[in-house]
């Protein structure tokens, strides 16, 4: 895979992880999981993981 398609794949995998975290928060009614699924924290982690995967893919 080239770097860009690898980046997109990692981005969507991480987005799926954030969504599952959000659903998990509703299932167990856990405020931390809901905030983590919606808040800047998960988006920041998502962006960091995507960047790290992009660098790894190119390298």
Helix and strand sequence: HHH
Structural class comes to mainly alpha
Q: Which percent range fits the helix content?
A: over 70%
Radius of gyration: 13 Å
Poorly predicted regions: none
Largest sheet: none
Compute the number of helices. 3
What would the average pLDDT be, to the nearest integer? 63
Count of folded domains:
1
β-strand percent reads under 5%
Distance between the termini: 12 Å
**Number of E-state strands:** 0
Overall morphology: elongated
Transmembrane segments: 7-29
Keywords: Membrane, Transmembrane, Transmembrane helix
Provide a descriptive summary of the structure in words.
The protein is mostly helical. It has one domain (3-58). The protein has helices at 3-28, 31-38, 40-58. Helix 1 runs antiparallel to helix 2, helix 1 (3-28) runs antiparallel to helix 3 and helix 2 crosses helix 3 (40-58). The longest helix is centred in the first third of the chain and has 26 residues, at 3-28. It starts with a helix and ends with a helix. The model has no long low-confidence stretch (mean pLDDT 63).
What features would you highlight for this structure?
59 residues
Short description:
This protein is an all-alpha fold and 59 residues long. Helix content is 90%, strand content 0%.
Task: Please describe the topology of this protein.
Blueprint: H1 3-28, H2 31-38, H3 40-58
């Amino acid at each position: 895979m080239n770097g860009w398609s690898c980046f997109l794949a990692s981005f969507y995998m991480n987005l799926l992880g954030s969504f599952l975290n959000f659903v998990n928060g509703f299932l167990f009614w856990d405020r931390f999981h809901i905030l983590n699924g919606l808040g800047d924290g998960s988006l920041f982690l998502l962006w960091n993981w995507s960047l790290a995967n992009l660098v790894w893919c190119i390298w």
